[in-house]
Amino acid sequence: MKADTPIFEARHVSLRFGGVRALTDVSFSIDKGELFSIIGPNGAGKTSMVNCISGRYTPTEGQIFFKGQDVTGMTPNNRAEIGIGRTFQNLALFGHMTVLDNIMVGRHHLLKNNFLTGALYWFTGARTEELAHRREIEEIIDFLDIQHVRKSIAGTLSYGLRKRVELARAMALKPDLILLDEPMAGMNLEEKEDMARYIVDLNEEYGMTVVMIEHDMGVVMDISHRIMVLDFGKKIAEGYPEEVLANAHVKRAYLGEADDVLSDEDDVTVTAPAGKVA
Amino acid sequence: MTSMIPCGDFKTGYSADTTIFPTTTSRNMVIFGIAVLCLAPLVMDKYALSLLIQIGYLGIAALGLNILVGFTGQISIGHAAFFGFGAFTSAWLVSNLHVPVFFAIPLAGVLTTAVGMIFGLPAARLKGLYLAIATLAAQVILQDFFARASWFSGGVAGTLTEPFSIFGFVFDTDERYFYVVLAYVVVMYILGTNLMRSRDGRALVAVRDHYLSAEMMGINLTKYRTLSFGISAFYAGIGGALYAHYLQFVSVEGFTILFSIQFLGMIIIGGLGSIMGSLMGTAFMVLLPESMQWLTDSLAGGAIDRALDLSNSLAFLREMAIGAVIILFLIFEPDGLAHRWKQIKAYWKLYPFSH
Q: Which residues span the membrane (chain B) (predicted)?
């Protein structure tokens, strides 16, 4: 599902920490319904960019627009309310809470009960509200196939499961734009395949616009609609996967020369002799 | 932790899955326990009853501190000052504004909440040791206020107040006042449990576990850190007010930093982040000196007593025992009595196949 209205726009964003230039004059826009990837070598500023989008950092220069609104100085919690959700590169679950509670925290801005009505639980409609949201949460749990751990303490789960719970929590926010910071880092092939499937479904079924940082080029090239490449805080390329793959700057900065990356031509040369032998 | 749900007990709805008690048996056991406690004034002597009342009002204040320290991950070493503020406020409302005691107690809780939130404001920016020092300021300022503001606290002479009464029925004996405290304990603990299983309670725990991602989930950190101080002060205020109308006298001397640290001891021993642990820890801290007394009494006249002069050193033996117990708990059971209780239940449940 793709429409041509930009849901997000960064205009000349620069971010400096003292003398370190994390981002320099980065501009790009993301259309509603897009699956947009940010790639680049380590330290290129990918996570800094995502932090600027989610509000963790405020850009030193430049502006950030979300749904046509200038959100440059907005706090992260307010951005969550207007529809930006994210997952973290390093796991950031609430370690001592159950999986269910973790996901319910994602509902924070959609729930209306507060400490008074919550404490009076049965008499104020808080119970009804909690149960209604619980029902919706269970749909997310089914979608991500984590039913078996719903009552487990999040801190005791395996790495792959925690990543999935984190995705569930971000989904519970019902965001329009979801930021995934290395959703597949440290996963085995099977877990990666599952995660790629979830991300595509997130985009196509749930209609969320996805921004993803990922190092696995196979996945990035397969599922992204468009890709932006950062290097030393500067944007060096942006475009469709095949354009980015062919870009000379990108090859030099990140992908390496042809022997490191399997382009289409390489595939042919590798498989052809194998066929002859058989 | 092993789930304590028996085999074959399947939940058939989300409402059945969000109850306070995991099984109907556990709920009935607690109701039965409260019913038994209702009989306590008929069978127990005055002294034992006074200990139970003490556990009650201190337990309410301890739950407040546990919400702040155990659930929200903040720190406060000024809890006794809020407890004292609740006591004085309730007494002041009754004697100066002629508010009936029945209303003065919750009102004192509300006013203490306001004071707690003011002193909780630094929590928006400070963490750990720095926050501890900021709350120490609350302790010192309030203590000084009690001593100087004689219009409010009666100054060094202290203040007298009336007993609790409804429709002319006066709860002025331990046997009667016990029911007032019991009712408050039940209500306050239910409110606390409900809070922790609804939106704002989860937000507090989220702030404790990972404040950065809590903020990304739409939680306003400043609001919830300050709110946590407010809730904790509310509980302290209620506990303090119950204390004031129990003794019917409030003195400025009681609310020292040592008392604040005792509150911290209660929740550490009971279990940080456990509702029932707060009550267990309070009971432990109240009964520990009693058991020390019993121990020295039973050794009286013997060789050990004569050698160590136990009967004359009871006061400091108590303090030493409290200190030693806190250290032992931190080493051997950092999750407190609540966790030990769970393990004991699991042991009986799973015996003889503990793995």
A: 20-40, 47-69, 75-94, 101-122, 151-171, 177-196, 226-247, 259-288, 315-332
Question: What distance in Å separates the CA atoms of residue B199 and residue B238, rounded to the nearest whole number?
Answer: 23
Count the domains in chain B. Answer: 1
A97 touches B: beta carbon within 8 Å: yes
Residue B70 near residue B253, CB atoms below 8 Å: no
Instruction: Determine the number of helices (DSSP H) and then strands (DSSP E) in chain A.
Output: 11, 10
- The answer to whether the beta carbons of residues B79 and B239 sit under 8 Å apart is no
Residue A197: domain span: 32-58+74-83+177-278
pLDDT in tens, A64-105: 999 988 999 899 999 999 999 999 988 889 999 999 999 999
Dihedral sign, CA of B181, B182, B187, B190?
Answer: positive
Whether residue B206 and residue A97 make contact (CB cut-off 8 A), yes or no, is yes
CA B61 to CA B232: how far, in whole Å?
Answer: 8
Q: CA of A178: which chain B residue's CA is closest?
A: B216
List pLDDT tens digits, range B107-135: 999 999 999 999 999 888 888 899 999 99
Q: Which domain holds residue B94?
A: 36-350
Question: How many CA atoms are closer than 13 Å to the CA of A238, on its beta-carbon side?
Answer: 11
A211 touches chain B (CB under 8 A): no
What is the per-residue pLDDT across A130-175, written as a single tens digit (0 to 9) for each? 999 999 999 999 999 999 998 899 999 988 899 999 999 999 999 9
- What is the Cα gyration radius of chain A? 21
Cβ pair B205:A96 closer than 8 A: yes
Query: Per the CB < 8 Å rule, is A85 touching B212?
Result: no
Residue A170 lies in a domain: yes
